[in-house]
Give the backbone structure.
Amino acid sequence: MINLNGGVVIVTGSASGSGAATARMLVERGSKVVINYSRSVEKAESVAEACRESGGDVIVQRGDVSVDEDCRSLARAAVDRWGRIDGLVNNAGTTQFCAHHDLEGLSAADFQEIYAVNTIGAFQMVRAVAPHMEKTGVGAVVNVSSVAGVYSIGSSLAYIGSKGALNAITVAMARALGPAIKINAVCPGYIESGWHRKAIGEEATDRMVAHIKSSTPLQSVNTSEDIASTVVWLLEGAPNITGELITVDSGMGLLRGGIPARS
């Protein structure tokens, strides 16, 4: 296990959403955090400002995780500033909404773009930080995946495939990189966020949220903070847990046997 109080953690895709919530929560635990963005420096700086106002020691670093050199630059930025890397949260992700039956709606380029960020990007980040974690003999990685890769549901076939692949390499890397480094994945269900509403519309989102709340055992949907708290637990706590896929979905997976939640 790593000690987050004084520990150094890189959080990719932390300019908004669950990544931003994770960065803020880590700062509350006393961590030094690399806040990463790909496009929106303004959002990243806003997250950094909030962290600094609460006493956090953070830096903002641009980087596209689909580019290997950017991943290595993120690792160097952490080491140059604080001399070590203790934790990595692979939160950066992308998708494209496309009905699963619309086989003409996705091109090979669409698949490649989504895999480049969601799967290859996570691998490249682990590769960039692993030598620094191995030097200290302890490190923790959390890949933010999705129930899409567990239940084969989600925004598009390309997204499902990318998260399924991320889950598979999470398990394989955990086996390969222990005992110095533990690697787990968090697989959220739907997360309440503005970008989802913007992508598919308010009405469709409201219908989906209502269905989740009425059909799942916990009758709730995730917030960004829900995901962040699970990530932080896997980083600092969760002793002797590695290579696991932790679903955070209000019990959605329990319904696969066809038994509805109690009314």
